[in-house]
Amino acid sequence: MGKFVCFGEIMARLNPLGYLRVVQAEQLEISYAGGEANVAVSLANYGKDASFVTKLPDNDLTKSALRKLRGYGVDVSDVVLGGERMGIYFVEKGASQRASKVIYDRKYSSISMAKPEDFDWDKIFDGAEWFHFTGITPALSDEAAEVCLEACKKAKGKGVKISCDLNYRNKLWSSEKAGQVMAGLMEYVDVAIGNEEDCEKVFGIKSEGTNVTGGSLSKEGYTVVAETLSKKFNIPTVAITLRSSLSASDNKWAGMLYVDGKSYFSKEYLVHIVDRVGGGDSFGGGLIYALSSGYEPQKAIEFAVAASCLKHSIEHDFNEVTIDEVTKLMDGDGSGRVQR
Amino acid sequence: MGKFVCFGEIMARLNPLGYLRVVQAEQLEISYAGGEANVAVSLANYGKDASFVTKLPDNDLTKSALRKLRGYGVDVSDVVLGGERMGIYFVEKGASQRASKVIYDRKYSSISMAKPEDFDWDKIFDGAEWFHFTGITPALSDEAAEVCLEACKKAKGKGVKISCDLNYRNKLWSSEKAGQVMAGLMEYVDVAIGNEEDCEKVFGIKSEGTNVTGGSLSKEGYTVVAETLSKKFNIPTVAITLRSSLSASDNKWAGMLYVDGKSYFSKEYLVHIVDRVGGGDSFGGGLIYALSSGYEPQKAIEFAVAASCLKHSIEHDFNEVTIDEVTKLMDGDGSGRVQR
Amino acid sequence: MGKFVCFGEIMARLNPLGYLRVVQAEQLEISYAGGEANVAVSLANYGKDASFVTKLPDNDLTKSALRKLRGYGVDVSDVVLGGERMGIYFVEKGASQRASKVIYDRKYSSISMAKPEDFDWDKIFDGAEWFHFTGITPALSDEAAEVCLEACKKAKGKGVKISCDLNYRNKLWSSEKAGQVMAGLMEYVDVAIGNEEDCEKVFGIKSEGTNVTGGSLSKEGYTVVAETLSKKFNIPTVAITLRSSLSASDNKWAGMLYVDGKSYFSKEYLVHIVDRVGGGDSFGGGLIYALSSGYEPQKAIEFAVAASCLKHSIEHDFNEVTIDEVTKLMDGDGSGRVQR
Amino acid sequence: MGKFVCFGEIMARLNPLGYLRVVQAEQLEISYAGGEANVAVSLANYGKDASFVTKLPDNDLTKSALRKLRGYGVDVSDVVLGGERMGIYFVEKGASQRASKVIYDRKYSSISMAKPEDFDWDKIFDGAEWFHFTGITPALSDEAAEVCLEACKKAKGKGVKISCDLNYRNKLWSSEKAGQVMAGLMEYVDVAIGNEEDCEKVFGIKSEGTNVTGGSLSKEGYTVVAETLSKKFNIPTVAITLRSSLSASDNKWAGMLYVDGKSYFSKEYLVHIVDRVGGGDSFGGGLIYALSSGYEPQKAIEFAVAASCLKHSIEHDFNEVTIDEVTKLMDGDGSGRVQR
Amino acid sequence: MGKFVCFGEIMARLNPLGYLRVVQAEQLEISYAGGEANVAVSLANYGKDASFVTKLPDNDLTKSALRKLRGYGVDVSDVVLGGERMGIYFVEKGASQRASKVIYDRKYSSISMAKPEDFDWDKIFDGAEWFHFTGITPALSDEAAEVCLEACKKAKGKGVKISCDLNYRNKLWSSEKAGQVMAGLMEYVDVAIGNEEDCEKVFGIKSEGTNVTGGSLSKEGYTVVAETLSKKFNIPTVAITLRSSLSASDNKWAGMLYVDGKSYFSKEYLVHIVDRVGGGDSFGGGLIYALSSGYEPQKAIEFAVAASCLKHSIEHDFNEVTIDEVTKLMDGDGSGRVQR
Amino acid sequence: MGKFVCFGEIMARLNPLGYLRVVQAEQLEISYAGGEANVAVSLANYGKDASFVTKLPDNDLTKSALRKLRGYGVDVSDVVLGGERMGIYFVEKGASQRASKVIYDRKYSSISMAKPEDFDWDKIFDGAEWFHFTGITPALSDEAAEVCLEACKKAKGKGVKISCDLNYRNKLWSSEKAGQVMAGLMEYVDVAIGNEEDCEKVFGIKSEGTNVTGGSLSKEGYTVVAETLSKKFNIPTVAITLRSSLSASDNKWAGMLYVDGKSYFSKEYLVHIVDRVGGGDSFGGGLIYALSSGYEPQKAIEFAVAASCLKHSIEHDFNEVTIDEVTKLMDGDGSGRVQR
Fold it and tell me: Which of A68, B104, E236, F124 has its CA 20 to 30 A from that of B162?
């Protein structure tokens, strides 16, 4: 089994207790999270040899973040120390009609100001089987985008499989910039992951007949989106998460996997939300685990969706679930009966 | 823009953490709230020049309460210091079939024992545009009722608009007493606010075909209630909140506004409740803001209901929302999707 | 009114805050609970003269547990001190599709290693009206089973009514062992309580046409189960709880009582769960209260189910409700409207 | 062994966490305490058959307070329910030069408005060995003073020993009033307890050569104070606590017992304070235990002082210590070495 | 009475609970503080008309910070909104030999990147009596230094008194840079405040015969330092705080005031520390209050030192004390006896 | 650099918040600790390649404990999974004259019931430089003692250095049993660590002229103790910790190292205690680090004592300090001045 390299930003996540808003908070929970770090933790939880690569300042927050990752069994020996600050984000948990809100204070973070020479990709990819990044990393800065490109090239050259979660963030860059930069990266990608919004915002690929806010989903529409993305960049595998937000408390959650011209839809779950942040990443982590473990497409998308379904019941970004728990759910037991 | 004067009681609110009952509690959250103070905070949050008037003892609880109000931008310079105690109420949060429970320890509070000469209404209403009080204040004591009446007269004389939330509290007075005292006050009122129970308990105005516990609501019935109230006291504007309690965790919530003989019904929301106390006050705050800002009746009732719908997702009595958030909801986005 | 003797194990219950998993926990709430202790507390809360009998080590945890029980008015003067440890169990609260999980560390507890000579049943049953135990106690060890048998014999001899909640725990013993031991005890039992799983796992009595996970319930099937159990052991009264797990957050909850060949079904409640552990015991407590207070069968089962319905909204195992609250719910008011 | 009846007020004690001031608090710990209730708990902790008598309103705070007392084994069956409210006091913990601060909201409490006919002293003193009250109770109201007097007379008549802690509270009454009322009560008292301030403020008995703030203590001075008090009211036993406040964090603590014309001084402890409130009551509890258990005077005062020395290391008012712990300290081991 | 304008940075202060280190923290308390904001709060607490001027980003942290300041009565109407982030600092509380540790994440804060044209000093100083800033502000950036200089000039021109706390921060600038920039500002200053380290690090003025770590203080040495500073920049009033760190838990604390060629030394306090951060600012706030209120020099320095002595017993940066409490301490009562 | 193998028990440590006693606790902090695990964490914190070996049950507590250790960089790949339970201990923090109290619930733990064949010492010591265990492990059971002996033999055979902290626990075994078993182990030991009590209780080696409770320490006495131990078992290096308990809040703390017939005494620190548990282990960790890093004896003992001095200011068992912090203290800066 090879190494699963995840590259991106890890931030300090600060959230008020319970349903308090940031403006009301006198206490904040601190944890450490980020799109790619969340995937690395999922993979380590499932027994994969996960490694997380980033650049972080040399201070106590970093010490704490690395301690957490290391605790999960994520290899952090390729993390580069330096730069000025760790990105921070504040999360307030929504409920009912009030949306959850994320406030970013990530500018000037070490990784966003990292230089290509900070990372020795030859060494990093030594023994690697998989490389995962998301659209957030190239959005951080031109240098970060350059680092991503270099990493993709190196990975490709070494036969390392590459997955990318589009993860469009409109506060980091415009659709135009995103489309342009991501296009250059997608040609290296083997597995693309996105939601309905990402594809439209980044590449203008729109699913006809879908209404996100309204909650209606069209199977054909999503197949067309995946197919278009797959063909445009010659990506063999495309996965799309299908979320219908009924409210900040209740969502419908499903996914589809498009492989070799065929689309596989998962079961749809009605989720009562404990903490929704990191939901997409838990899907990515589940999918990469399943695909790299040789699951059939239908089983792979069921695993990814069941894993991320469970994540919505877990506090903080990391998905604290076991393969057994995911499997039990995808096999049909979502009754939530007490396990004694 | 003139001052919005809110007059009434502010109390220390003590509630156990989460869903613990008072009898189980080892810790209590302390905040400060009251029907009219909650409205003042809502108005200040929406940018109005709100002022809160009351009488409070000269101690550290008062210091803390005033600090909170002042923090929201509420003017507390007309608060009178004196008397013996601040009222206290204990709230335990219900869930499912278990109702929330409020235990009052408000007797002998400074405001309930205040005298008319404590307040210089001429000075208080100087530059005022609006005066708001609720049926709780005159229920506190005969003196408090007298103060309300004097305030109403002064306000009327100065052309200040007057709103009153009926807010019937059966632990404070009987229906008979309430009906008698409130009748004397209603003749000064421009905007009356109530729920289906208030109108019946205070003035015997009953909506036919409505079953509060059962959850059925009749549009015609509510129109009749509003019309009757409007005609009886010559009140141009009457608003009624329409709550259907499915359980302590889930409510339906809507409102209607009766203006110039016509009734406007808002959308109905299905609310998953975080904290229900202060829900009615957040409606009042939203309505007064909307009406005083020149909103059309339909838009005004939609704003008030959307504002109070959001309140149900906010901990403690004060409604920590912005005009933008309310507007977004009333314009249709109640999907609760994460705001990044 | 005589004494209600409950005999079994009380453990330290340790649970993370909110929805955190044990593996994430840095803090645990500690309370003290156990099937029979929970029933004793319910009975004391309803005004019965409850007594709890067990064996506990002589340490500060025991001191704390007894203080809690004594606080509720439960007589603990027959608790035997000695042995090596108090059992412990860890509970993590599930949500949505993630099940609640109970991790037991109860082996070698004082009660599980108690000897028959530890208890002076003559003295314990002096003035007793009722004896309650559950299938957990005989499952702890052969000695514990022997103690149960001796207690049943003594109780019977003194005309004390005996109730038993089957409460099958597959981590403590096998179906075979359970069936064999429980059969020897059931002949003394006047009131048997169980859920659909208990009857099948312990005595192989299966309800046709029921699908627990799927949530479908068959009235006839349950009647057959109760009847079979009643006839097999000559038990006049059999009660069955009917839970449909929609998810870890939402359950349907009802019960049936089989008396003198006739079955009485309660209303069914849709419960939004705060804490589900102890739900069955609160049913038992409600039922014993109702039966011993002379309630008619239909009213008795309604009381028991309403009581346990409310328990699902209460944190920790003990059912912190009053007769008034239960009665109000069984009489139809489950709207959860704020009690001021 | 007879009953030890303690009569007085129990209040809800609300304190911010740690060293936060009330004006900063968002959370308060709630416990229940009062001078005589604290003594009752101490006596129950030492194995005495303690009973607490008061009047409390019929609400959930009372339910919780009684549950706590009952948990300690204090008999609360003579508590009278009725009246309007439970007294409340807020405590903020001082440190260094900043004094601890107690804010009372106890006016109009049920006990302060109780009538003599509320208490059936014949029944209460049935089987009683000791009656304890403090100078706080008669200070609450004229009726409360009258109840105290009646209780003293009844106790005397039944041969019940009477102890009284002077406990002068200048916010409740003036020195003049106190002196006058207390004089009428002291003639029934067998054991008087006070500190240097009480004797001066209530009876004008002043210790020459003592400077409380400065921390100098004069043995002769205290003997004179005790002797004067003893002779004035014909009280055989007088105990005085000797506190030197170095700061809110560090105190010196000792005591003296004057019996039959002879004074016994305890060791002096340097205490690093965790929670100082209830310190005097823990002295009273220790003294009553020791005297009623036949301790020699020197041993009795050492026990009382060691008990109250330990109390300063315990959070909240109740003294959570065992006879063993007190004895170990009075026998010389105050090294605080870990007990494994 | 005129306005007291304080200009500088306010940051989010994040600290673990109790004595946990940052690397151990799962929760952080959030408050808002900064050298000049702390002074503004002190002045407002003492009844002065304080105003705080800064630049902050337009987000929820700012909303919360301003709400806090406004709550204390600090005028924040001249705060400029804009820029990218609010500075953050992490504080871990030391104990015994382990020092408290402050980790700054303040780079790129809005105020550090502010431009001179952001502030309209004419308007800000309208009606002003006093202007206070510290050496931290010019250290943030060249632009910030420029803004300070402009403010000083404007203040001087309008006859506003100027105070400056040297507050040298070696992580923000070098001694050389500090000396050079501060020299340009000191010529406008009327009241200079510093500790023994500031004077040496910024201006190379060293007190002979002092050993900070060792804890020995020389009165003559400090007089020379003050005199030198006073003469060098023609500053009439110089105050120096005298801290001897015995450990992170215990400090000696005193101060001296040099006015018109004469030095006044305060009493020295032995402080048991609750929270030491903000101690210097509380001295500044006390001093400015005393000087502007016409206190004699000896009384002024006693007030400033007593105020800051008390601050060491208060959690978080703001000094939550009243004039009465300060006066009581400076008048000699530091015994910390309970205030009932 | 070789591996540092630490072998022993790790337990769940449960402690109430702050200074609450176990009997008062409603919440407990959970961490994971044990004598040898604490040393492993210290060594990893100082950059050594530490490995911890034990046997633990396969459950979520173990998962959490291993995650913590792994987070610190401790290798847990040789931990054996199996057995029935993880040991638990409850700690209540003492203060002033009230001692800290440890309540063990460690019986039947997996490690105490482990068999020699559970551990493959050849593999474990592959690449090892150091082996550390304490007297607690052989005290757990005869099998555990046997495992220790086997490990010592294997280590010796492979030239691995062996250290042993005597750590006598009278609740686990008698002095006789301890003396007998430990004697068999000491002959393999290169570095023996103990306190004054261990040497006396285990081997009857008593320091004349020492009075632990009284706090007097005799340098000559300790030298004799070390010399006797060294000669008796032919142990080249002996270290003794010297604690004088002034109270549970304040201790004096020092150490001595006896190497090649010469004794080296460290500075003595006056420690104000935050958490004392793990203090001895932090000494062991510091000493092993210093000795294995080639420190001279005087410097080694200073490092060990400074490290453990700092530990007393750290919450929980693990010593969260850096080499820099220890070095700074041993070099003389214990002033606790804020590090900005």
Answer: B104
CB within 8 Å: B314 and A94: no
CA C226 → CA C203, C219, C241, distances in Å?
A: 12, 11, 11
Read off φ and ψ for residue B78, nearest 5 degrees: -100, 10
Compute the mean pLDDT over every residue in chain C, rounded to the nearest whole number: 95
pLDDT tens digits, chain B, 340 residues: what are they? 799 999 999 999 999 999 999 999 999 999 999 999 999 999 999 999 999 999 999 999 999 999 999 999 999 999 999 999 999 999 999 999 999 999 999 999 999 999 999 999 999 999 999 999 999 999 999 999 999 999 999 999 999 999 999 999 999 999 999 999 999 999 999 999 999 889 999 999 987 655 554 445 578 889 999 999 999 999 999 999 999 999 999 999 999 999 999 999 999 999 999 999 999 999 999 999 999 999 999 999 999 999 999 999 999 999 999 999 999 999 998 888 998 8
* Residues in CB range of D217: below 8 A, 6 or more apart: D210, D242, D244, D254
Please say whether the beta carbons of B22 and B41 come within 8 A.
no
Length of chain F, in residues? 340
Q: Is A28 exposed, middle or buried (0-12, 13-18, 19+ CB in 10 A)?
A: buried
Residues forming a β-bridge with F7: F53
Q: Using a CB-CB distance cutoff of 8 angstroms, which residues of chain C are in contact with residue B100?
A: 336, 338-339
The size of chain C, in residues, is 340
Query: Whose CA is closest to E140, among E179, E116, E110, E112?
Result: E112
**What per-residue string of b and e applies to A105-120 under the rule 16 or more CB within 10 Å gives b?**
bbebbbbbbbeeebbe
For residues C54 and C111, the answer to whether their CB atoms sit within 8 Å is yes
Q: State ipTM.
A: 0.94
User: Is there a contact between A167 and A136 (Cβ–Cβ < 8 Å)?
Assistant: yes
Question: E164 in helix, strand or coil?
Answer: strand
Closest Cα to residue C182, out of C239, C152, C138, C226?
A: C138
Option in D21, D100, D212 nearest E314 (CB): D21
Nearest to D108 among B21, B29, B107 (CB): B107
DSSP string, A58-99: SSHHHHHHHHHHHHTT-B-TTPEE-SS---EEEEE--BTTBP
From the list C133, C210, C142, the residue with the least C-alpha distance to C178 is C142
Q: Which of B67, B69, B77, B79 to mutate to test the interface with E (most CBs of E within 10 A)?
A: B67
Q: Among A274, F335, D216, which residue's Cα sits nearest to residue D208?
A: D216
Strands F27-33 and C27-33: antiparallel
Mutate which: D252, D319, D326, D335, vs F, most F CBs within 10 A: D335
Instruction: Give domain D3-330's CATH superfamily.
Output: Ribokinase (3.40.1190.20)
Residues F289 and F43 sit within 8 Å (Cβ to Cβ)? yes
pTM across the whole model? 0.96
Taking the C-alpha atoms of residue C45 and residue C47, their distance in angstroms, rounded to an integer, is 5
Q: How far apart are CA F140 and CA F169, in angstroms?
A: 10
Question: What ranges make up the beta strands (E) of chain D?
Answer: 3-7, 11-16, 27-33, 49-53, 55-56, 80-81, 88-92, 101-105, 128-134, 161-165, 191-195, 237-245, 250-259, 262-265, 269-272
B87 CB neighbours in chain D (<8 A) are none
Place of tokens 């060098």: E232
Q: At what angle do helices D175-186 and D219-233 cross, to 10 degrees?
A: 60
Chains that touch F (3 or more CB pairs under 8 A): A, C, D, E
Classified as helix, coil or strand, C339 is: strand
**Residues E246, F269: Cα–Cα separation, whole Å:** 12
**Taking CB atoms and an 8 Å limit, are C14 and F28 in contact across chains?**
yes
Query: Which residue is closest to A24 within chain E, CA to CA?
Result: E64
